[in-house]
Design a protein that fits this description.
Distance between the termini of chain A: 63 Å
Number of strands of chain A: 21
Shape of chain A: globular
Number of strands of chain C: 18
Order of helices and strands of chain C: EEHEEHEEHHEEHEEEEHHHHHEEEEHEE
Radius of gyration of chain A: 24 Å
Helix content of chain A: 25-40%
Largest interface: A-C, 45 and 51 residues
Chains: A alpha/beta, B alpha+beta, C alpha+beta
Strand order of the largest sheet of chain C: 8-3-10-1-16-15-17
Strand order of the largest sheet of chain A: 9-19-18-16-15-12-11-10
Largest sheet of chain A: 8 strands, parallel
Oligomer: heterotrimer
Amino acid sequence: MAKKWLLEPDFRIERDPERCVQCQVCVRQCANDVHQYDASEEVVTSDSSTCVGCHRCASLCPTGAVSIRRAPLDFRPHGNWTAEVLRNVYKQAESGGVLLSGMGNDRPLTVYWDHMLLNASQVTNPSIDPLREPMEVLTYLGRRPERVEFGPGGVKDLKTQLDPTIRLQTPLMFSAMSYGSISYNAALSLARAAKESGTFANSGEGGLHKDFRPYKDNMIVQVASGRFGVDVDYLNNCAAVEIKIGQGAKPGIGGHLPGEKVDAAISATRMIPKGTDAISPAPHHDIYSIEDLRQLIFAIKEATRYTKPVCVKIAAVHNIAAIASGAVRAGADIVAIDGYKGGTGAAPTMIRDNVGIPIEFALAAVDTRLREEGIRHQASIVAGGGFRCSADVVKAIALGADAVYIGTGALVAMGCHLCQKCYTGKCNWGIATQDPFLTKRLNPNIATKRLVNLLRGWTHEIMEMMGGMGVNAIESLRGNREHLRGVGLSDRELAILGIKSAGE
Amino acid sequence: MKRIVAREEFCIGCRLCEVHCLVQHSKSKKIIKAFRKERETVVPGVKVEQAGHVSFALQCRHCDDALCIEACMTGAMHRDEATGVVLSDPDKCVGCWMCIMVCPVGAVNRGTGRRVASKCDLCMGEKMPVCVANCPNEAIVLEETDDE
Amino acid sequence: MLGNIRTDWGHDSAGCAICGMMSESGRPMGGETIIRAIANMHDRSNGLGGGFAAYGIYPDRADQYALHMMYDDAAGKAAGERAIDVHCVVHHVEPIPTRALECIRNRPILFRYFVTVKPEIMKLHYDETEDDVIVHLVMSINEKVEGAFVVSSGKNMGIFKGVGYPEDIGNFFRLDEYSAYLWTAHGRFPTNTTGWWGGAHPFGLLDWSVVHNGEISSYGINRRYLMNFGYHCALQTDTEVITYLFDLLMRRHALPLEAACTAMAPPFWTQVERMDEERQRLIRTLRVIYGGALINGPFSVLVARRDCMIGFNDRIKLRPMAAARKDDTLYIASEEAAIRIMCRKPDTLWHADGGVPIVGRLKTADAAVA
């Protein structure tokens, strides 16, 4: 086709002529060539057709002259054939390809966290002031035995040994974002912030760049279906190993890194040819059943001499409780559940928007099932998938999570504006790109500080909410559904979440 | 002495340093008015050098052993004793451009409008040079340095 | 379970009075002293519950389980007795003696049974102890049998409780006529549930009896943690949960007392960091494994068993507890005034530290406390 004439722009640039001083900062900063300087007219012009709504120009404009507005053409209203659906059909008619998206499900679906409310203590039980009294959020993740045993010497004769665990100063961790989907500077900032905050960052399936080895005590490395970068040095340079069975944004399929983002450094770290698409297979081709998973878990445990916990990451799907139970019995020390709103660098839009279930239900179902089977203590549960704030985290812990993975939240802290074009490799904020012109934009010194700030702010808020509930140790919040009440939920939803309705 | 140091690996080539330097050295000190009315008459003291994706901000180094002061025939180019900053006095400058010729980094410019030398004055009187304060990526910083 | 309780009102909390006395040499003491002590703390209760636990009161039947039962009505009694008869040989049964008092109204039917488990039932539960079988029986009656409730199920001990001020309850049950080497007492000021006879303290299971002043903010998770091990918290009370945690940690998991208390009220991590390596390892191991047993929120409890009495406060000391010793006797109470009623001039008197248990141990040949 000669011209993409059926695809009108998503956004319109509004440039205030009273304020624009033709400094050309916007011209230099837009990776999509939206702004141009016309030397003969001595004026900056904008071609909105390629604007992705990332706000880079507006953020840097020194006079605030640039604004970005949504400007799709108005269709005749149609409840079924919405503007978005029409656009998807036009795109596929042009290209014949699979629709791709970045980041997580953006449909206006129910956020169940907003239907759960927290408790506070009054009169009968004093609330605790976290600024003046100890408030403990220290968390250990890993397997634990059911009981402690002492020898004939009593308390001084402790026989029980703890299995390998990882220790978190806060119940927040950075979830898997592969070096490749994000830039070197972004991955470095996550590792540094994890170390500084006493928690962990997940390498994702992109392998571990050797420059990141100083952070190994705060890294969780991922073994995904493509096995990118998995070798002995990988397993030796981490605190824990995560087997990625699934991802919330795209359950059932593997990771996808477009060839545009595979430069020399990525190629070396992932051990694949430069410029080729890195498409991980859908299943691990050596895991076709639960006993195969057990085999891989123990292969990794043997390789690491049983010194590191092994985590299994699964996407939240319909029979998540049974799958989680199976993973625990297969030997997983930590089970990470990723809900359907989780982010991604690239996923087919249809899968991102239609496959998987909400993390709220998945988490509640898994915690309940593991307790019913009497195996809840055998593994820690980590929940992820669209956590937006510390209140979401507190609610997740009350439902039963030991810790929470944040991905999108961390990227936003570093500057992401959720334009969802990560798969193009043209991230204007220097996060989801390998273009050296763009990766400079993310200064790891600044980004690390922003991530540390985010974790600190959320951790303090978690402590405030805990204190309000009269709880000074996170063990007493974990799985304590008495502190949650539901509003606007059906009886069935309340029952599955295991919480009472507000007023009860 | 505190000097401005460029961090090339973080420079994004936006040239906001140049923009703010211009505003700071304009009469109006307001960005819109300065760009409308004074663009022809104010030359920023900082300039971004760029080749491909490599870029950094360049300005006067306020050398301890300043060649421009030696070369100046009227004494317009001098050092402020209190701060160590090298300054050009526009009232004494005759526009011979010897300072431009001898500057090893090319930090001196020809002023527009009037025939005087123009260069970075480390924003005398401000707590922090405006280029440093306004760089969105901390690609230029103010640091204590030894002899330059 | 009794018909007049509402279990949908959420878990019970208590702001109350507790009191206990124990002769470590096993010397029997009359009930009047404890009644006067708890009466002194009258204003800590609101008349919606009072109760006592007494140990050593059935020396002639010391090896039989003394089941104290409450029944709503005759039908409840029949159903309760059926359940008991299936599992147990009933060696003796009698109504619990009481006095008629104006202030004690709407009382349930009160009987006590001295039983042992039938050998053929023990065969069915071949890998469990007699204690385990009694626990199953108690859980099943309390959860499923309409109109019947097991108040206490220990040997040579009994719990006497009901709706009313504790001194009236003590008078009602004629406790002045009993002699025990260990007494605990409780007066209730409930805020979440109405008064009902079974909901008064002490709460008991086997030899355990617990009286409690406080509200557990970790109730939700303690209850779910206990479910893992087969304990069903039918009563929705904090005291039930505390009792089951002690039973789990000390009886089933055989933890030494100090370890069990550390698991339930551990020191803060910041304090742990300053301890020596071995102690750090011990506390870390206990805390990581028994996170679900950590009791958060204010509490002051008196836990009694045949061979010990344990006074225990939450780790940030949000409820009072005073203790004293004179000769062979240990006294513990919510207020010093109550201690002085029990013993005018003790040898030592102090106030409990948060998280540190006060322990009285029976010093006779068959004592078993670790």
